[in-house]
């Protein structure tokens, strides 16, 4: 992708990119690294998606047809892990790399060499993880939440590789986040005060904070697993005075903030796209910032809502129910602000806007089902059924993933200097929109009817909804191959884009030429009032 | 009031999901207990609130989408702040949430009201079956048994037609009396499982080494089905729960007969069985307890689950084979079957393994040998 | 804005591309896969081959050495302006925060076990039924010297808990270690004063004392572990007390090792004539790290040994 971008810039400066493969291996440039992250995450998305298709194919009909239960479990586990750690998170880091230096008016990230390290750890980590599928005894088969003791005493040998892969991913995320924080706090152009920063920058600042706070806790959790497996400790074994449930507490102390890590940058992206296409300033900027901060704060005290059925004392159940419900308030503020931004705007509906609107609607639906899950007594009926699967796919797929797709369409002109084909983009949107709903809406019903998650085979009354869901999955999956086509076509033969890109776009990145120069801002730009909030 | 909101909510739901004939299939089950009904109502209240908020929020959004578009000549307005409305849309949701929290808290507190029970049952999850133990007041086991999936293998592999309760049927269901408060002590032997009967509105994780309490009072006799709902390994999808609720007298009679037949069964452990008896017995036991890992044909799924065919153990000294099965292999999925099977079953299954699938150890294993081994340790 | 494709070197420093990161990532991959493989072999009762891990370790060390040398030489060459310095400061600060959270996971485990699980297993508290029903012989005490299932987890003979009367401290290693670490925090501060006063002798001698204290700490720690294993029967597999004890003190010890090594490198640099009043980030970062390690120890001493 960037090959095109930098053509013609090579000769102008002393440390331009080297040619060929080494450029990508050795690069310290935020755009190159952003590009690497984005392509990597797309590859992971295809692999994780392929696993989802294995799942959906097996679940097309009752009975065991295509895979054995032990392989099915490996597919579920790796699908979850790869989508979360390999597709969504690296995509957001890629966007951060591309956009944050441009949006704050800097030439690059604060720590460019470490930036390269953060990226290159990932292919190795995921190489290890995917290779476990081919090991004796099979890959991780204990769910992406890897509850002990299924993931310790009863795990296949490959779990040791899995543990180290998680350590590596954690290191990568922590370094990436440190870099983002340092960039935001240190590299802003003069005049770009905190309360003038673009929303994407704000959401990433807070996300990076969350990451640094919780990735080490995950590292601690897998380290304790490693010790239980290999060194005879008893953290998660009651026979030695430990407790399997303790694993879940530690995991979800990481895991719940983790799900917000996957949505806060999405909020940032949507807060750029809606104003641009409504041709109106973002409504309630200040409350948007506070809402994100409150969500981040609350995310640390709600973790046990994933564990309502483990048998906590009543006081604990009530605390976690109430605190979880509170998250609806700041999230609601965000939804209302987006709608108020659209209100009395002058809207057009190009592809990024379509994805953004679908995001607002479908994410909110996922939020509603989340709120229902938060109601403890009702969660006893929903927990570990497809109702939960429906909930989190609504917030993750038309939530996180749609925001990423929207971001790609929105900033592609800036990255490549080319426009995508609007008609194809719209087609991609409608295919995705229909596909995603056909896939995941019926899962609410199979869940309410009582279908547990993580099963390769099911009772006859769930058959209709599963068949529908599988058909939707194929529609949705293949639409994403179409997305690839639309993007490649734009890069190769798209019409040249203007610097401003979109009529209503605002922000420092749009003051740069399209494609943006290799070192975005070589001198601190003047921060003009019309480009920032305020 | 609660009922009214619930009805309103179901109306709204049906408006959304077209076709009222489907309503049963589309929604949570009402269930048969007081608790499950309360949960259902709670579910309908929160669903209704969400649907109403959704209609308002999405209504506003789509109104804007259809009316404030550039193609209609809309000019962008210039506002980007309004403290009053922002306070309103913070406070109103807060109030709504409080409204939701009140009934939720009430139901939850009611659920935690354990104790005062008429009967006590231990529920223990194993890979991949449930064990039920009837306990007396001092927690002594009076009668216990395992409850295994009863769906035939060939239905699962699509070689024969799937019957009505496909995957939801067991060889021996848990039986409890109607109208009595039954308290369950839920735990597990190996990994975490979860015990769920949707119609009772109760679900709790079964955690090895830990214990959770659960209770129910079922007014109507009947058969109620559920499934394990915590990923517990390979056959997590194949460990159903079936509870048969009997009228009180019927239950009492059944229970008394079980307790006496338990004593008779123990006497039979002294008998000596023939090769044919052992093989026949053994095949059944093997099919229910062993085949999930070692497979019906004894080939296992190496390396995770070793083959019995040609296994060194199955042709080696008999007592080693017996004690491996009795004690299991610590730290692996091979459980200590001494705790699960009686001497007749243990002797038969070992004898079977030593003489089936082309194995031919040529010796005999008798219940008495099992008892000698167990006592010797 | 003349010549706008050149990055303004007074404000920014954009390093040229380099091979370190990708080789470091590769080395890490070799290291961890080698370790995983060896651990699995040992678990399967085999004889592990550590060659690959060793190779990975060598690569990682070599790259780190080259990388840091490069960064230091850039600094000596005056390429690091105020902004770069600030980025390094933020970087180190947030790195230490991530380390705090890493230890928080283990402290969290300790508290959870002590406050909730062990009492429950012993038949006390809200879920005491667990102990009554499943572990009738288990008594809740902390330190746990008798495990719920002693057949699986051998009971330690004695715990490492601090003696109850002050006099007992005389023969109590962790107490000496506390004194040593606290002292070393002061000595590293003295060394910093040396830089600020531009007194190189003061810097070098106090820094050397700090490194020495770090080493003594580690020796005593090893001594303590030997005692635990040989005299007290307190091991990694002696149940939850041993588990929490060794994971906390062990990872702390590992961090002391790193910290000592970092300070040692700063000592070498100090001898070579690096550092000035306004330019001593390497030293400062190491000393912050050292203070962090010290604070963790105080937490450890209180919650693992005393309370
Ligand atoms: C991006 C990821 C993401 C996001 C944003 C969320 C958001 C929320 N989630 Fe979700 N969740 C997951 C990802 C996510 N979740 C995942 C992956 C799992 C499963 C993990 C696993 O087990 O594998 C899960 C599981 C999960 C559970 C556990 C279920 C179970 O296993 O039994 C619960 C329970 O409380 C929950 C609750 C919530 C809540 C209350 C929100 C809230 O943040 C939602 C808030 C939003 C709204 C409410 C909508 C907008 C608000 C308004 C329009 C205002 C007015 C509204 C009202 C007053 C009602 N989630
Ligand atoms: C961020 C996250 C994310 C995303 C994007 C998705 C995307 C999808 N998910 Fe997944 N999912 C999770 C996160 C995510 N999921 C998590 C965390 C779990 C829980 C795991 C657990 O229980 O432990 C889960 C579990 C889960 C289940 C439950 C499994 C079970 O309980 O056993 C199902 C079942 O339908 C499912 C389906 C899908 C489908 C159909 C998609 C689709 O959107 C995917 C569409 C994409 C494609 C299909 C790719 C297109 C590729 C091709 C067409 C082939 C070309 C390929 C190559 C050239 C290599 N997911
Ligand atoms: Cu047992 Cu799932
Ligand atoms: Cu959560």
Describe the overall structure.
The complex is a heterotrimer of chains A (534), B (377) and C (307). Chain A is 66% helix and 0% strand. The N terminus of chain A is likely disordered. Chain B is of the alpha+beta class and 377 residues long. Chain B folds into 3 domains: 78 residues, Orthogonal Bundle (Helix Hairpins), CATH 1.10.287; 142 residues, Cupredoxins -  blue copper proteins (Immunoglobulin-like, Sandwich); 104 residues, Cytochrome Bc1 Complex, Chain D, domain 2 (Orthogonal Bundle), CATH 1.10.760.10. Chain B is built from 11 helices and 10 strands. A 5-stranded mixed beta sheet of chain B has the order 3-2-1-5-8. Chain B is elongated and about 95 Å long. With 307 residues, chain C is an all-alpha fold. Chain C has 2 domains: 66 residues, Helix Hairpins; 227 residues, Cytochrome c oxidase, subunit III, four-helix bundle (Four Helix Bundle (Hemerythrin (Met), subunit A), Up-down Bundle). Classes of the chains: A mainly alpha (534), B alpha+beta (377), C mainly alpha (307). The interface between A and B is large, with 94 and 97 residues. The complex binds heme-A (2 copies), dinuclear copper ion (CUA) and copper (II) ion. Dinuclear copper ion (CUA) binds next to loops of chain B. One heme-A (HEA) sits at the interface of chains A and B.
Question: Which helices and strands, and how do they pair?
Answer:
The complex is a heterotrimer of chains A (534), B (377) and C (307).
Chain A: H1 2-6, H2 20-26, H3 30-58, H4 69-104, H5 112-131, H6 159-186, H7 199-230, H8 244-261, H9 264-278, H10 285-299, H11 314-326, H12 328-342, H13 351-374, H14 376-382, H15 386-416, H16 422-449, H17 463-493
Helix pairs in contact in A: 3-4, 3-5, 3-17, 4-6, 4-15, 5-6, 6-7, 7-8, 7-9, 7-10, 9-12, 9-13, 9-15, 10-12, 13-15, 13-16, 15-16, 16-17
Chain B: H1 2-16, H2 23-26, H3 34-67, H4 83-111, E1 119-126, E2 129-135, E3 141-147, H5 153-156, E4 174-177, E5 181-188, E6 193-197, E7 202-206, E8 212-217, E9 222-227, E10 240-246, H6 248-267, H7 275-294, H8 312-315, H9 318-327, H10 343-355, H11 367-376
Parallel strand pairs in B: 1-5, 4-10
Antiparallel strand pairs in B: 1-2, 2-3, 5-8, 6-7, 9-10
Chain C: H1 20-43, H2 51-76, H3 82-121, H4 129-134, H5 173-196, H6 200-230, H7 239-272, H8 281-306
Helix pairs in contact in C: 1-2, 3-7, 3-8, 5-6, 5-8, 6-7, 7-8
The structure holds heme-A (HEA) (2 copies), dinuclear copper ion (CUA) and copper (II) ion.
One heme-A sits between chains A (145, 259, 262-263, 305-306, 324, 327-328, 331-332, 335, 364, 367-368, 370-371, 373-374, 379, 382-383, 388, 391-392, 395-396, 399-400) and B (50, 53, 57, 93, 96-97).
